[in-house]
Amino acid sequence: AQTVTQSQPEMSVQEAETVTLSCTYDTSENNYYLFWYKQPPSRQMILVIRQEAYKQQNATENRFSVNFQKAAKSFSLKISDSQLGDTAMYFCAFMKPGGDQFYFGTGTSLTVIP
Amino acid sequence: GAVVSQHPSWVICKSGTSVKIECRSLDFQATTMFWYRQFPKQSLMLMATSNEGSKATYEQGVEKDKFLINHASLTLSTLTVTSAHPEDSSFYICSARVGGQGNGQPQHFGDGTRLSIL
Fold first, then answer.
1. pLDDT (tens digit per residue) in A76-103
2. Which positions in chain B touch A35 (Cβ < 8 Å)?
3. What share of chain A is helix, strand, coil (3-state, %, to 5)?
4. Partner of B82 at 20 to 30 A CA spacing, among A39, B12, B61, B66?
5. pLDDT, tens digit, for every residue of B4-13?
6. Testing the interface with B: which of A102, A108, A111 to mutate, by most B Cβ within 10 A?
7. How far apart are CA B33 and CA B107, in angstroms?
């Protein structure tokens, strides 16, 4: 089974600052897909960003970007200009090619401090 | 696009009652939907994969007779918690995938159902 590790259970950041959430994974696959999801207090899971392993270019969505290091099996999420609405649980997820199942990390609880 | 609706959002019922939770894909067809369970401050645990027109695939340790899944159409999957007991109290979330298996597309999630069994 694939394993996804988020080593930071809790983090905090000052509003307008930048924060990086870490995620590492273990796989023998060469091509796969990685995702970051956000779960605010409302509990809805919201897709933040998606990365295809065969693409070397790091994915970016507005203030959210990733640092994808394939050899190190690392997929960190950088949030720039943090806003109060970014306060949430963040989950990293892995999906094998040709597969259905998501493998989720244990999550990082991020608090943005005014 | 890719909106998933889950109903009800919150249900409280007595022990021994059966509870049905609906998951609908509103603007796309979903041949596959997923059911998760989440305990407070923990990650999502996959319970089963629901396939339209066929039997669901349950993860190890999940009781098929306790958690009945029906995926009768391309837009609706239901999870029925039969004879619910307090230990079944949890947050249940469904998701659906756009397109076929293995296409690398993200799952889109419903808002979740908070189930409380008294």
1. 999 999 999 999 999 999 998 777 789 9
2. 106
3. 5, 50, 45
4. A39
5. 999 999 999 9
6. A102
7. 9
